[in-house]
User: Which sequence fits this backbone?
C-alpha cells in the first residue's frame, strides 16, 4: 500500500513539474527489411538420386542489399541419418548486392515453409532460425539438414498427386537500430472549468425552468441540474410528486441564505464565500438543507466545519443537531468534548445544561458519577 501511494504521488509530482514544458523523445527503432523467395520443385521424384551433399540451387535474390540463394538437397546434405532419407534446405549468404554501400557482414533470421502446389503452407514443416551473423568472409549459410523426409513428403496428398511442392524462404535482414528524435510542441492544458460555467448559468438564469419560494425570496434554477445532483429533487421535479407540475415550488424550514448557498454547491460542488463570523450558523442551516435533499458531500463538509466550532457554549445544540440528522462523526466529536472533566464542568455552568439533562439523561448521570470525586 505504501509503495503504491508513493508511486502515485511521485507520478503526480512529475506530471505537475512537466506541465507547460516542451518535450522531445528519443526512440530507438529496429531497422529491418524482410523479403521472400519461393523455390518451386516440380517433378520432385526425378530430382532424387543425385547423392548426399549435392544440391540444386535457386536463383539469386536480394533482401536488405544482400544477395541470397536457396540450396535444395533432394538426398540430404549429410550422411548422419541415411536411413531417414532426409531432404535438406540451406539458405546461403552470397555477399552484398552490387551497387550498394552495404558491408560484407550482415545479421538476419530466416523462416522456411513447405507449400502445397496451391500455395497453402504445410504448418507441420515450418522452421525458423535465431538471428544469424554472417561475417562476409566466404559463403556462409543457415539451414535445415533434417527438413523433411521423402517418406513424409509422399504422405502429403496434394504434393504426392502433383509430384510438386514449393519452398518459401522469408529472410529478415537486421541493420543497426535507427534512432529518431521527435520534438513535441509546448502544450498547456487548462484546469477544469465546468464549475465556472455552471456557476455562470446559475447567476444568469439562462434557461431556468423552475422557481423556488424560500421565505418569500424567489430563486430560479434548472430542473435537470438539480435532479442530476439530488435524488430528492429528481423525485420532486421529475417523479409523481406535486412539485413536478408546479412552476413555483415553496420551500419550508430552510432560510434563504442557506438555500442560496446550497444552490451554489449544487452547481459548483463547492461552498460560496462565507464570512468567518457567519460560518457556524451557515454550516448548521446548510447541514439541515443537505440532509433534506440528500446531498451527502455537502452534509459532510458542514459536519467538518461544525467540528471546529465545538465548545462549552455550542456543544449541546451541536450534539442535538448531529443526532437529528444522523451525523455520526459530529456526534462523536461532541461526546468526546463533553466527556472531558474540564469541559463537562463548563457545560454544567452554561445555559444549555438543562437541555442536555432533558435530552441525554443517562449520559449526564454517567458523567456526574464519573466526575463526582
Assistant:
Amino acid at each position: 500500500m505504501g509503495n503504491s501511494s508513493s508511486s502515485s504521488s511521485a507520478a503526480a509530482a512529475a506530471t505537475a513539474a512537466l506541465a507547460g514544458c516542451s518535450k522531445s523523445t528519443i526512440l530507438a527503432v529496429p531497422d529491418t527489411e524482410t523479403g521472400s523467395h519461393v523455390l518451386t520443385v516440380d517433378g520432385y521424384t526425378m530430382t532424387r538420386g543425385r547423392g548426399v551433399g549435392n544440391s540444386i540451387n535457386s536463383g539469386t535474390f536480394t533482401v536488405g542489399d544482400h544477395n541470397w540463394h536457396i540450396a535444395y538437397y533432394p538426398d540430404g546434405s549429410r550422411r548422419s541419418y541415411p536411413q531417414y532419407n532426409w531432404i535438406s534446405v540451406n539458405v546461403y549468404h552470397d555477399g552484398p548486392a552490387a551497387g550498394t554501400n552495404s558491408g560484407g557482414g550482415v545479421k538476419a533470421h530466416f523462416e522456411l515453409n513447405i507449400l502445397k502446389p496451391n500455395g497453402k503452407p504445410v504448418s507441420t514443416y515450418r522452421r525458423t532460425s535465431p538471428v544469424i551473423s554472417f561475417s562476409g568472409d566466404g559463403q556462409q549459410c543457415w539451414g535445415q539438414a533434417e527438413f523433411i523426409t521423402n517418406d513424409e513428403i509422399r504422405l502429403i496428398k496434394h504434393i504426392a498427386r502433383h509430384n510438386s511442392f514449393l519452398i518459401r524462404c522469408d529472410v529478415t535482414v537486421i541493420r543497426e537500430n535507427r534512432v529518431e528524435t521527435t520534438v513535441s510542441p509546448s502544450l498547456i492544458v487548462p484546469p477544469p472549468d465546468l464549475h465556472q460555467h455552471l456557476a455562470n448559468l446559475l447567476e444568469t438564469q439562462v434557461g431556468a425552468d423552475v422557481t423556488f419560494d424560500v421565505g418569500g425570496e424567489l430563486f430560479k434554477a434548472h430542473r435537470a441540474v438539480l435532479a442530476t445532483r439530488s435524488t430528492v429533487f429528481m423525485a420532486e421535479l421529475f417523479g409523481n410528486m406535486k412539485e413536478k407540475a408546479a412552476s413555483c415550488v415553496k420551500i419550508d424550514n430552510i432560510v434563504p441564505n442557506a438555500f442560496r448557498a446550497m444552490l451554489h454547491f449544487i452547481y459548483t460542488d463547492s461552498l460560496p464565500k462565507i464570512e468567518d463570523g457567519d460560518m457556524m450558523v451557515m454550516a448548521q442551516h446548510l447541514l439541515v438543507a443537505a440532509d433534506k435533499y440528500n446531498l451527502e458531500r455537502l452534509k459532510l463538509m458542514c459536519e467538518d466545519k461544525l467540528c471546529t466550532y465545538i465548545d462549552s457554549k455550542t456543544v449541546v445544540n451541536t450534539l442535538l443537531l448531529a443526532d437529528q440528522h444522523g451525523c455520526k462523526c459530529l456526534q462523536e466529536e461532541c461526546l468526546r468534548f463533553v466527556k472531558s472533566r474540564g469541559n463537562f464542568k463548563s457545560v454544567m455552568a452554561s445555559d444549555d445544561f438543562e437541555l442536555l439533562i432533558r435530552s441525554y439523561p443517562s449520559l449526564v448521570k454517567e458523567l456526574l458519577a464519573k466526575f463526582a470525586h
